[in-house]
Amino acid sequence: xxxxxxxxxxxxxxxxxxxxxxxxxxxxxxxxxxxxxxxxxxxxxxxxxxxxxxxxxxxxxxxxxxxxxxxxxxxxxxxxxxxxxxxxxxxxxxxxxxxxxxxxxxxxxxxxxxxxxxxxxxxxxxxxxxxxxxxxxxxxxxxxxxxxxxxxxxxxxxxxxxxxxxxxxxxxxxxxxxxxxxxxxxxxxxxxxxxxxxxxxxxxxxxxxxxxxxxxxxxxxxxxxxxxxxxxxxxxxxxxxxxxxxxxxxxxxxxxxxxxxxxxxxxxxxxxxxxxxxxxxxxxxxxxxxxxxxxxxxxxxxxxxxxxxxxxxxxxxxxxxxxxxxxxxxxxxxxxxxxxxxxxxxxxxxxxxxxxxxxxxxxxxxxxxxxxxxxxxxxxxxxxxxxxxxxxxxxxxxxxxxxxxxxxxxxxxxxxxxxxxxxxxxxxxxxxxxxxxxxxxxxxxxxxxxxxxxxxxxxxxxxxxxxxxxxxxxxxxxxxxxxxxxxxxxxxxxxxxxxxxxxxxxxxxxxxxxxxxxxxxxxxxxxxxxxxxxxxxxxxxxxxxxxxxxxxxxxxxxxxxxxxxxxxxxxxxxxxxxxxxxxxxxxxxxxxxxxxxxxxxxxxxxxxxxxxxxxxxxx
Length: 619
Prior knowledge:
globular, 619 residues
């Protein structure tokens, strides 16, 4: 039911979840030295540069053609410096693993000196490499930071004069999630793991589609050796005038293998979404002609084999060689992101037929467009019902009141129609795509009210996830977001704690909760849902008070006997504009208290503007 939607927006992958600290490590950005500076490559009194870095393209290296050629002319202190992703976050006494490829063609460069420097150019970690080979060779070393610094940079300088070639200059913290070499940021993944998500949807989002078909996400280019993965411009690079990010590219250090592995690591089912041959309809809307759709369909079939195939199958063998001989147990796949119109239905039909004929048990997620109402939505829903679509993805970015008003949205959905994936939603405090949106308490509280309606209708709504998932404090494009991070820290918004409370208290069986015989939805600004958990033998009641006053509720449980006490978890703020922040990351976070029951009844006071979870053991 409750899962995670991941998209590489707001520097969520490179610069975020992916712990690589060097930006443009293989010199493949459109401006090849973007992210790198040469502060001492100036002319001296005797009219000779200390050194110069240029990039060389070797076209036969199709996926990674560029490398950096550095000429050191004298001993005047030439260096090349990488700025990282709005700086590099290093922590005192932590270890950082550096790797690079070098070719010391004439053997005249005696040493490569590698330093971490702080914002004042002070050295806060140092190591060196002796480049022993005339040909390309991989080198590895380690730095230990001597102080904590959010805006560190990586400085590389040289002993000797002459020419040296460098490529794939990479720096990772040694302490990554599950200690995976060159893996993911531990603090961010911990926040995801703590949600106990049921699924992980990846890689998006509009990033699946691309602004053009050439810029779409192609999963086959994201697997195999890291250095052979082709760098691609990120579609959110210059999408918004309010926050352009011309240095936003995708290294695909997190590719489809790593997404599947992450899902496994956090106990979630993988849900990959693939291009259906339509570029983003908010951009070019470029279409693959129907008679050229086969490669796109084959990509979907091959992905299922990559995830689930025996090691003797072509794609199962590749997965095994990457270190995972066991299948990833893929059960669902998405065709398109939020496309609309007859062109989508036409293409979806081809995908559905091909996937079901070869893999009949794989469930297919289709889309009903970008809005929860209107012509696109109504047309898509009508056509998908005709096709007996299994799961339809609905998206809603609306104001907080819409979420409260739509808590009954699914009450009258056809129980025999498609199941629903509430795949992207977030209350917008100002307006959709506004840079002024905040993760304030009114938004989170309103989402909680709406989610009681999702839970009450779980026979229709099978999956739900907030979007977008995360954002870099300085490099975001879209707000609001569930998690926020900078180079040193990460925290969950108030919305995160709502999602976590629902996800960790989802239970196994829905039970009715009524007031005067009616569903408790919006009566006196109260919203509710209830479940029992047959694994833990508990009743779990979710009560949302969206009013400005304390409300007392009396609950009578019928048909079971309950313990004489339980636990009440509350998430609340008296200020609807309140937000969590780096200064106060848990300002809005859950508190617990013991409550007593009497004769199968529970009496509880619900604070103004509060989300409340009551858990009681069943006898």
